[in-house]
Design goal:
Number of helices: 7
Number of strands: 9
Radius of gyration: 27 Å
Structural class: alpha+beta
Helix content: 25-40%
Strand order of the largest sheet: 1-2-3-4-6-5
Largest sheet: 6 strands, mixed
Distance between the termini: 66 Å
Order of helices and strands: HHEEEHEHEEHEHHEE
Shape: elongated
Number of domains: 2
Strand content: 15-25%
Amino acid sequence: MSAPEPLFHAFDIETQIDRLHARRVALPGGGSVVFDRTEALVAVDVNSGRMREQVGLEETARKTNLEAAEEVARQLRLRDLGGVVAVDFIDMRDAENIKAVERAFRTHLARDRARVRPGRLGAFGIFALTRRRAGAGGVVVRRACPRCEGSGVVIHPDEIALRVFRELRARASGKGRRGLRARVSPGVAEILRGPRRAVVDALSGDSGRAIEVDADPSLPPDGWEVVAE
């Protein structure tokens, strides 16, 4: 008798958890909604995507917004997002379409067991609401990146290369004739050995110090050190 299939595999739960923490959530018609958390609020942006190629702009906006209204309300429950939530729907001109999207969003929000205080769909397509979390804020299976601290932005290798060169120049201008060795990530090493090779060699010649650049794959992209030998 074969062992039973693990529950998480049978129902593809891990994939669903990954989607739960994804920044972008696809909509059935080709659009998407994007979730961004800030200190002040949760911002949700509705995008039409490839749907805009199929129908007119107003109809695209209406269909995408109706799909987004259902999905955003669902994601608020699944992610247990709390505080102020601002949903940026696609702009519409037709008053009936605006009312239809607002009515649909309120209907979907009404299914939430948490306390929700909805606003209205404003002139710029913004629907603001407040929601009180029902629990601890979703399943904790993610943490902020230790390199970018959750910002999603890291320093460009060119900037790291400049910082390393400035350190080399500062060390080379000091007393002594000991050689200098820079230990950097492979991406930064490629810059210092390529486009910046001439200035490194010039610094070595002017200072009378040997300068070596070592590529260390174990270092993070923004990690480096300069030592005297």
